[in-house]
């Protein structure tokens, strides 16, 4: 958003320059580069390694990337805002367009709001045959609850995001209607955990899923959850 505001400002300044008899490119070399090249602004995919990723997270990431090679698994990209067809569809069908323009200009995905390494570092892989996702998650220092451990709300957020993606891929535009979590062991801050989600059943617009959160060596079961997601009805207003 900030980038597009800056771009708009540059264009405006350049056009003002044209009225004053100065070529826009001469006034603004950045704008000139953009106008005369085919370069496009590519949004950052946050579901890729960055320097804050621990060795554990990188190792697991590499293992799953290998599993993607035969097409059985797929890495799901993740953006701060709006770059998926699903989020555009959601706005089209369920949000008032005035609200989208005026109030959502600053909006970004809750889990991607922190600087690298401080909050939610994660990548989700999807297996279509098995209708399941595996989310590799490293919870950073800004997600502390009880000293030294992850906040339960941060764990719930990641479970919701991981289970939600497992529902949204086959289900389309869905929302969480119910999420039940048993917190069995506290998760150490900055450690890596594996969130396994599974689509169990679909009944009409209802998708039932289950989930567990385990340590990398699978020896510790941190949390278990079940979720109910509802496929939104385009005929029904959300507000
Ligand atoms: C999750 C991905 C979403 C994808 C879409 C958008 C963009 C994607 C792009 C990027 C996203 C990336 C990652 C996503 C990350 C995180 C996911 C976050 C998800 C959320 O953070 S989301 C916020 C919290 N969420 C809410 O804010 C919902 C508030 N809620 C409602 O807006 C309505 O409640 C709604 C719409 C859910 C249903 O409303 P509705 O009118 O369409 O349906 P209705 O009420 O008729 O229920 C139909 C049948 O479900 C049964 N049913 C309903 N609720 C039940 C319950 N709680 N327990 C047991 N059964 C229940 C009924 O009993 C009936 O059952 P039956 O058909 O058998 O009679």
Automatic annotation (TrEMBL):
Name of this protein: Acyl-coenzyme A thioesterase THEM4
EC number, as in UniProt: 3.1.2.2
Annotated compartments: Cell projection, Ruffle membrane; Cytoplasm; Mitochondrion inner membrane; Mitochondrion intermembrane space
Organism: Lipotes vexillifer (Yangtze river dolphin)
One of the protein's GO biological processes: apoptotic process
Family statement drawn from the similarity comment of this UniProt entry: Belongs to the THEM4/THEM5 thioesterase family.
PANTHER family named among the record's database cross-references: ACYL-COENZYME A THIOESTERASE THEM4
MF terms in GO: hydrolase activity
Pfam families: 4HBT
Reactions it catalyzes: dodecanoyl-CoA + H2O = dodecanoate + CoA + H(+); tetradecanoyl-CoA + H2O = tetradecanoate + CoA + H(+); decanoyl-CoA + H2O = decanoate + CoA + H(+); octanoyl-CoA + H2O = octanoate + CoA + H(+)
Topological category with respect to the lipid bilayer: Peripheral membrane protein
